[in-house]
Amino acid sequence: MAHRTPGTNPIASRWLALATGRGTAWVVALVPLLLGLAVIGALGDGHRDRLPTDQLPAGYDSTAAVELAERLPDAGTSTAIVVFSTGPADDGVALSQEQLGELGRVVADLSGDEEPVLVPSEDGTAALGILTLQAASASEVAAEVSDLRQELATQLPDGVVAQVTGPAGIEADLAAVFDGANVRLLAVTALVVAVLLVVTYRSPVVWIVPLLVVGIADQTAARLATRLLALVDVAWNESTVGILSVLVFGAGTNYALLLISRYRDELRVREDRREAMRVAVRRTVEPVTASAGTVVVGVLALLLSLVPTTRGLGLACAVGIVVAALFVLGCLPSALVLLPRGVFWPREPRVGESTAAQSRSVWRRVGEVVARRPIPVGLAVVVALGVLATPGLGLRLGLDTADQFLTKPEAIAASERIVESFPAGTANPTTIVTTQDAERVVAAAEAVDGVASVRPAAAADGVTQLQVVLDAAEGSEGSRAAVVDLRAALADLPETYVGGPEAQTMDGTAAAARDRELIVPIILVVVLVALTLLLRAVVAPVLLVLTVVGTYFAAVGASWWIFTGLLGFAALDEGVPLLAFLFLVALGVDYNIFLVTRAREETREHGPRLGMLRALGATGGVITSAGILLAAVFATLGVLPLVVLAQLGVVVCVGVLLDTLVVRTMLVPALAFVLRERFWWPQRLLR
């Protein structure tokens, strides 16, 4: 079967001539960079007013409760709970009447109410002040809480300490953890990429070019993505830009590594570096566009999520991958061809040297070991993946409010202090929002086991909001059972919804399960179709998808052992399995594409066995470098002080390392060696 070299159509040939021409390469290199810098300078991040439901799944009770509560006149407010105490409850030091009197005046002064809400505990060691803050957005809440904490520090009686918690305190502390965090993440990511590029190329110069191109692509993608999200009114949050940055740096650098590796190989067989770059681009454009296209369609599957911010993440990541691929394919070749061979100093490629496919690299030698005993090696890898996946059988999903932070902020410490002297559910009360008769709803709620108290919190325009304090702490079986029983007791009342932190966690877990059931099969189909179209085969794509799925389960199992055995996490955030699956499968297919497209190319000339060995020699180094770099980049998510991002980074890091060092190096070649020509069925690759 005649083979048509990618990129040999007239339009592509003319573009390559411009991109590598002596008088035009500098224009092609500079224009994208200048346009990117113009976008970065002219466009700020997009702005969209955050809604209370942005991170809540559509169609669930807790979300409906928030939506109905928006009809209340104080919907643009937030509640802060101030915990006054003399220290831990087990110290046994009670607040004096004089101190309580002074605290009443402090709360009155802060709230502006003549009859402030100050609730002493039964053991006398603590008191709660309830304050309503006139703030709607997260930034306004953070500013109000910061001012409140400063004022409390100057007004407290001697011997009394105050901590701010409640919805306002938690929201403020959540916002505070991101202060400067994305800048730190960008700096750490760029540093990690720079170090790994230096190690990969062993050159003090060449790493600057891809890092500059990908760095500008990253900032361009961030501006364009947030602007697009604001334009189409899709929600995003603080972590969206962080994950987007990691993805652009990881994927963009991977594409750059593949291009530069092929270019360096062609410099060993061609004296003219411009011709070498043209050949390198022709051989690289197909796997890069196939890989980028697969990732884009994969992340767009997140648009089917019930959670608005998850949909926003999918759209933002799609923009990021497109921008990264365009910069690498449209700018990097011209930037590199403008520089002499000496840019690779001290390992300058020279004509006549062995190419990567011809060399006896460590990956070629590993491939030869696998080729001698493919079945035992393949079975050993499968068993190892199964063993690693085993801890995942005990996986527990769902993080409580207190479990979401890597370091304990004031709001969480205050909540724990409340539990020592008040009913456990006082710090994060459950809410009921209804349009029905309030007394009837109160009576039904008070009859539910596990409910400590029910009191009206707000009422207007036919809507009543009730605050329900549970006996059990948030995250406990008793708390979840009480929410279930509350919903059952109120099921016959129209427009009556149970919300609050516990209810939102439960609904989030259910929505995440629904998202996984819908989106995971779509991602698998997308990847399978992409590989089938690229390889024009059936057997290879199916096997490759199975290897990626096996890697995912092994990564989750190994990570769960790390979380529970080393890091002390009690659960995995419900959003992590879906995002980890998406990134591992969509990005893992990159390495499949890099390997098998080269194997297909080599198999046409050298047969299935030698073709795979040459492909391993040619791509083993670049895939390993790309995998280690991508794993390290995702690990930098730990810079952002949220457990969900740290967990996502660990799972993807472990999965990428398994994929590049074990699965792509041993299992996939073993399958190809066992099946030989049948691996490429129904395509006939051999002459």
From TrEMBL:
The chain crosses the membrane at residues 23-43, 183-201, 241-263, 284-307, 313-339, 374-395, 518-535, 542-563, 575-594, 615-640, 646-675. Signal peptide: none annotated. InterPro entries: MMPL_dom, Mycobact_MmpL, SSD. Residues 545-673 form the SSD domain. It is a multi-pass membrane protein. It comes from the Bacteria. This is RND superfamily putative drug exporter. The keyword Nuclease does not apply. Pfam families: MMPL (PF03176). It is found in: Cell membrane. The lineage of its organism: Bacteria, Bacillati, Actinomycetota, Actinomycetes, Micrococcales. Belongs to the resistance-nodulation-cell division (RND) (TC 2.A.6) family. MmpL subfamily. Keywords: Cell membrane, Membrane, Transmembrane, Transmembrane helix. The keyword Cell membrane applies. It comes from Salana multivorans. One of its GO terms (cellular component) is plasma membrane.
